[in-house]
């Protein structure tokens, strides 16, 4: 079957809208007619080729759509069901069995390798393989093959365009605070970086009942949105030392710091911001694979500090995503404040707008 896709024919694009051939769903797979898909920064990292992506390729991992066909063994959804797509996991390793699929031992091959072990793919063009299965979906296309392990069935009246970005960026930020750092009511939270993930961390802080939420972000427009969606204070890092600025608000230090920037000069400050039993959560991926976060040992051990890495906000399809979908329906997750919608064909424009600060989170929609 043929479907229109945004194909990346070379590292860093541009995306070219062209038809690709899509194989029938195999055991445990399903074909989804994509109605909306968010653009996540990870798509651009993969698209740079830095993680070994083969070209041509179809990316996209925040899809939402309607099931068209299911392969053998798929019973949790059926044709006609609306579904939200998220990251994939194996379901049989010790992390999956413990209900922690974001730390699946097969996370890289199942989400970022984009070809099967034997090099074959579900997509092709002119008889040649097209790298696919990005986060078990490759949803920058009118149709995608997903897996039972990475879909959540939605209500028949669900708003697919509104829900699409939950599948990666939003769940990562909200989950980092609510699940990975286990935020408790009344705690203080500092968020570094006010992109879609950082702003979502603020939303997570609100849901958890955090008492003081502070955003550190250089762009004025993002600081303004942060105040609208729940930040109590915003700090411009250009205005002076961010540790001093945080401690002027929280003299005993913060209970939690979440970094969504991956910008090492900013991340390094997190260590000086936390108080006793404070937790630092790392989401932002630094530009260099060799980046190191220095921790002052004596200070750190006497105050009981924690640093932990975070993937997908420790989310999963059976517990957290349904919870977030309910919060969204009830109006408690106003991430639409920082989402801009574009027709699918305008994918390059959407990415350009994001680079130039004209849009924070882009969602592509199909007619
Ligand atoms: Zn993502
Ligand atoms: Zn696994």
**Tally of individual domains:** 2
Compounds present?
A: zinc ion
CATH architecture of the largest domain: Alpha-Beta Complex
What average pLDDT do the residues reach? 97
SS field, number of helical segments: 12
Number of strands: 18
Structural class: alpha/beta
Do you know the CATH topology of the largest domain? Answer: Quinone Oxidoreductase, Chain A, domain 1
Model regions low in confidence, pLDDT < 50 over at least 5 residues: none
For the biggest sheet, the summary is: 7 strands, mixed
CATH-defined superfamily of the largest domain: Medium-chain alcohol dehydrogenases, catalytic domain
Q: Summarize the helix and strand pattern as letters.
A: EEEHEEEHHEEEEHHEHEHEHEHEHEHEHE
Q: Give the overall form.
A: globular
Q: How much strand content do the residues show?
A: 25-35%
CATH class value of the largest domain: Alpha Beta
Report the end-to-end length measured between terminal Cα atoms: 19 Å
Radius of gyration over all CA atoms, rounded: 20 Å
Amount of helix:
25-40%
């Amino acid at each position: 079957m043929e479907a229109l896709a945004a194909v990346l024919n070379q590292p860093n694009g541009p995306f070219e809208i062209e038809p690709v051939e899509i194989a029938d769903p195999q055991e445990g797979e399903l074909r989804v007619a994509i109605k909306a898909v968010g653009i996540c920064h990870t798509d651009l990292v993969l698209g740079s080729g830095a993680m070994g992506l083969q070209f041509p390729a179809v990316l996209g991992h925040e899809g939402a759509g309607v099931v068209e066909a299911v392969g053998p063994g798929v019973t949790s959804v059926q044709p006609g069901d609306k579904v939200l797509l998220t990251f994939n996991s194996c379901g049989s390793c010790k992390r999956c069995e413990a209900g922690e699929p974001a730390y699946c031992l097969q996370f890289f091959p199942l989400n970022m390798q984009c070809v099967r072990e034997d090099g074959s793919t579900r997509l092709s063009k002119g008889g040649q393989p097209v790298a696919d299965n990005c986060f078990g979906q490759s949803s920058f296309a009118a149709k995608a093959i997903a897996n039972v392990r990475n879909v959540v069935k939605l209500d028949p009246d669900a708003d697919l365009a509104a829900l699409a970005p939950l599948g990666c960026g939003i769940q990562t930020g909200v989950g980092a605070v609510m699940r990975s750092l286990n935020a408790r009511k009344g705690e203080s939270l500092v968020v570094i970086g006010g992109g879609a993930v950082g702003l979502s961390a603020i939303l997570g802080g609100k849901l958890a009942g955090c008492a003081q939420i502070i955003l550190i972000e250089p762009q004025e427009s993002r600081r303004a949105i942060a105040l609208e969606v729940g930040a109590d204070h915003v700090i411009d890092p250009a205005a002076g030392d961010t540790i001093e600025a945080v401690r002027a608000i929280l003299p005993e230090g913060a209970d939690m710091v979440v970094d969504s920037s991956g910008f090492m000069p900013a991340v390094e400050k997190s260590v000086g911001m936390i108080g006793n039993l404070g937790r630092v959560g790392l989401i932002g991926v630094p530009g260099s694979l060799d980046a190191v976060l220095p921790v002052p040992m004596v200070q750190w051990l006497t105050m009981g500090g924690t640093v932990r890495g975070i993937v997908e906000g420790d989310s999963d399809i059976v517990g957290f995503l349904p919870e977030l979908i309910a919060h969204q329906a009830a109006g408690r997750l106003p991430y639409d404040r920082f989402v801009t919608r574009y027709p699918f064909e305008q994918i390059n424009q959407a990415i350009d707008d994001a680079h130039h600060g004209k849009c924070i989170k882009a969602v592509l929609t199909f007619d």
